[in-house]
Amino acid sequence: MPYVLTANHCLEGLDAMGDSDAGRWVFYWEYEHPGCVNGTEPVHRTSTGAVLVANNQISDFALLKINAPQDPRTRPGVWPYYLGWDRSGNAESFGVVIHHPVGDVKKISLSSSIQNQSSSYTFGKVSFPANSLWKIAYASGNGTTEGGSSGSPFINSSYRVIGQLLGGGSG
């Protein structure tokens, strides 16, 4: 069954340990353009309904499982690409962030390095210990993130998710 990674603050009160029914959520598939420049509005290919399987307010992540009859593989014109996970903790020299800034069509930002955040980091009222977050540097002219990008996957050179976007400024 397909899963979707997003930010916890998007859940509107849902919690995996309580009310996990995201039955009315609408998911847009293939919401993209072939190039970097936005063109006409892409065709809306959607499915509705999911169950929240895991979430954490502090690290601002949420993982939803799409309801079986709404599997995107059954939607005309949708060819999903499923990513695996990498929990090794190894830093990389290259990676990508796939995101929808401010709800825009899909953008892909290239990183020039992915390193452990070697010092503690405070975002809002939460402090994270050293080496518990990734620090991403974007390749010059090839990326940024902004509001609406939260919860987006960080993908390493082996096409595995190593984390999700949490906090930080644009760029």
Summarize this structure briefly.
The protein is 0% helix and 36% strand.
Kindly provide the name of the CATH class of the largest domain.
Answer: Mainly Beta
Radius of gyration: 16 Å
**Count of distinct strands:** 13
The low-pLDDT segments are: none
User: What is the strand content?
Assistant: 35-45%
Broad shape: globular
N-to-C span = 34 Å
Question: Main attributes?
Answer:
6-stranded mixed beta sheet, globular, 2 domains, Thrombin, subunit H, 0% helix, mainly beta, 3-stranded antiparallel beta sheet, 171 residues, 13 strands
Task: Describe the overall structure.
By secondary structure, the chain is mostly beta strands. 0% of the residues lie in helices and 36% in strands. It is built from no helices and 13 strands. The protein has strands at 3-6, 26-29, 45-48, 50-56, 61-66, 84-85, 95-99, 107-116, 121-123, 126-128, 134-138, 153-156, 160-164. The protein has a six-stranded mixed sheet, with no helix packed on it. A hairpin with a 3-residue loop joins strand 12 and strand 13. It is globular and about 45 Å long.
